[in-house]
Write a structure and sequence with these properties.
single chain; 105 residues; alpha+beta; four-stranded antiparallel β-sheet; 2 helices; 23% strand
Length: 105
């Protein structure tokens, strides 16, 4: 397993990132679709006002459902693969390699 990578951010908090697992290309595609949808909905939310109540309600509902599916994917994969976790950490995926990283501060 590669050495932990250390990164500095503007606020100078030391971050470590290391590989804790990998998912299949199919599993990667599932989370990538949800990730892109979530980002698109977040961008739409920035420009949409509550003036169009019907569209606004659809957006809020879709954001909630997509967020739930997104979190459910991470929960399912963590259960399936038993990835290491940390109280002050989160997982990230590299969409190109399907590798899962644990990022901690």
């Amino acid at each position: 397993m590669p050495q932990a990578q250390k990164r500095h951010h503007k606020n100078q908090i030391m971050m470590t990132k290391r590989i804790v697992g990998q998912v299949t290309p199919e599993e990667r595609s599932e989370i990538q679709t949800l990730f892109e949808r979530r980002n698109g909905l977040n961008e739409l939310a920035k420009i949409l006002t509550a003036d169009n109540a019907e569209l606004y309600e659809k957006l809020v509902k879709d954001m909630g459902e997509t967020g739930t599916k997104f979190q459910d994917w991470w929960n399912r994969m963590a259960q399936k693969y038993q990835w290491e976790s940390a109280e002050n950490g989160n997982w990230e995926i590299n969409f190109d390699t399907c590798e899962i990283f644990l990022v901690t501060t």
